[in-house]
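Support request from a user on the community tier.

User writes: "When I paste my C-alpha cells into the form, the page sometimes reloads and wipes my input. The last time it worked, I copied everything first. Here is what I submitted, just in case something in the input itself triggers the reload:"
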C-alpha cells in the first residue's frame, strides 16, 4: 500500500509563492514517476507536472515557467514550487504515484 500526504497549501496574494510537498510511504518511491494534478471548484481535474525517477520534468503550458517540480528520493518527497501565482491557480492540488492519490492540499490565490 502506498500513502501520499500533501502539505504546504494556503492563502497567498497574486504574485506570491508557495511550495507544496508530498511525502510518500513505501520503498518504491525512488523508482516511480510522480505527478501533480489540481482541481478547481466546478472544473475537471487538470494535470500540472510530472517528474520521472531520473528527474526529467514536464509541465502543463498553464504553469510552465512559473512552477517547478522536484524530488528528494532520500526523503521520499516530491515538491512543487509555485511562483508568480495567479487567481486561476486556485485549486486543490494532489500528488499521484502509480495510481495512488493523496488527499489534496488547498491553494487559494487572492487578487
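"...and here is what came back when it finally went through:"
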Amino acid at each position: 500500500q502506498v500513502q501520499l500526504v500533501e502539505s504546504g497549501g494556503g492563502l497567498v496574494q497574486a504574485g506570491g509563492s508557495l511550495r507544496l510537498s508530498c511525502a510518500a510511504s513505501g520503498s518504491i518511491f525512488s523508482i516511480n514517476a510522480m505527478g501533480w494534478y489540481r482541481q478547481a471548484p466546478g472544473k475537471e481535474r487538470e494535470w500540472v507536472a510530472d517528474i520521472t525517477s531520473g528527474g526529467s520534468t514536464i509541465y502543463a503550458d498553464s504553469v510552465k515557467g512559473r512552477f517547478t517540480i522536484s524530488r528528494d528520493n532520500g526523503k521520499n518527497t516530491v515538491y512543487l514550487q509555485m511562483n508568480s501565482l495567479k487567481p486561476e491557480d486556485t485549486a486543490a492540488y494532489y500528488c499521484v504515484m502509480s495510481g495512488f492519490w493523496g488527499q489534496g492540499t488547498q491553494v487559494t490565490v487572492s487578487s
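Agent notes: The reload is a front-end session timeout and is unrelated to the input. The chain has a mean pLDDT of 94. The radius of gyration is 13 Å. Escalated to web team.
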